[in-house]
Specification:
iron, 312 residues, HhH_base_excis_C, Endonuclease III, domain 1, Endonuclease Iii, domain 2, NTH1, mainly alpha, damaged DNA binding, 15 helices, lyase
């Protein structure tokens, strides 16, 4: 503790040092009983923090640390996004396994007369793609056997864009008869062939949007053309068979009224790796077992799993 004399001397020294500090900002005088110089804002905050209890400060820091890490894990870049549950039909995986088992022989009409078997495999790629599209246009509302017969007659005359455009309507009609709606299909085939020659150099478009813009080409044909002609899976090809079976098995969240509505509903939940398989699988199943009228439920492995079978 300082004596009164020492305190006086210290005060005098402090005044002298204070005057000296005003001339030399870097100087920091120290002495017993000296009044400290005002702290800057950052220094004041640091001194204030030092005055708190170390125990309380540690607890508070720990709580803040845990809270901060929790919010960071939710919003950080490495965090996994929240997964929204996707609707899927009950027992669909077992139903699919059963359908594959019933289709393992691959002996339905679609298996040897479908679009994959109607084009000339020895023709140039551009011609093959054109023949794929033409067979799809003929197949609408037509059995595979009839479509295959029409394609054989057309190929016998050399089936190319140029040969079709050089064929008069009456002759073309005789060649494709008796496909469904053959008269209107003659018109569509001629119009589409002219567009392909003018805009695509005799080839077919490589996108669904351009394909469905062609006269007489619908979504099912476009997706199948992308798969068969271009080797690209763009969506599920849904025809009347797929539409009917999907509704019977309740593979749609609610009943659908058209093949295109069914396609949208199926693509919402069916894994993409199954999209290419589902058309041929269900078409053949519909041709042999799940018939439009009087389905053969007694011979179906899905009889106990099919909602529609319970009411038949």
């Amino acid at each position: 503790m300082c004596s009164p004399q020492e305190s006086g001397m210290t005060a005098l020294s402090a005044r002298m040092l204070t005057r000296s500090r005003s001339l030399r900002p870097g100087a920091r005088p120290r002495g017993c009983g000296e009044e400290p110089a005002p702290l800057r804002r950052g220094e004041a905050a640091a001194e204030a923090r030092k005055s708190h209890s170390p125990v309380k400060r540690a607890r508070k820091a720990q709580r803040l640390h845990v809270s901060y890490e929790g919010s960071d894990s939710e919003k950080g870049e490495g965090a996994e996004p929240l997964k929204v549950p996707v609707w899927e039909p009950q027992d669909w995986q077992q139903q699919l396994v059963n359908i594959r088992a019933m289709r393992n022989k691959k002996d339905a009409p679609v298996d040897h007369l479908g679009v994959e078997h109607c084009y000339d495999s020895s023709a140039p790629p551009k011609v093959r793609r054109y023949q794929v599209l033409l067979s799809l246009m003929l197949s609408s509302q037509t059995k595979d056997q009839v479509t295959a017969g029409a394609m054989q007659r057309l190929r016998a005359r050399g089936l190319t864009v140029d040969s079709i455009l050089q064929t008069d309507d009456a002759t073309l009609g005789k060649l494709i008869y008796p496909v469904g709606f053959w008269r209107i299909k003659v018109k569509y085939i001629k119009q589409t062939s002219a567009i392909l020659q003018q805009r695509y150099g005799g080839d077919i478009p490589a996108s669904v949007a351009e394909l469905v813009a062609l006269p007489g080409v619908g979504p099912k044909m476009a997706h199948l053309a992308m798969a068969v002609a271009w080797g690209s899976v763009s969506g599920i090809a849904v025809d009347t068979h797929v539409h009917r079976i999907a509704n019977r098995l309740r593979w749609t969240k609610k009943a659908t009224k058209s093949p295109e509505e069914t396609r949208v509903a199926l693509e919402e939940w069916l894994p993409r790796e199954l999209w290419h398989e589902i058309n041929g699988l269900l078409v053949g199943f519909g041709q042999q077992t799940c018939l439009p009228v009087r389905p053969r439920c007694q011979a179906c492995l899905n009889q106990a799993l099919c909602p529609a079978a319970q009411g038949l």
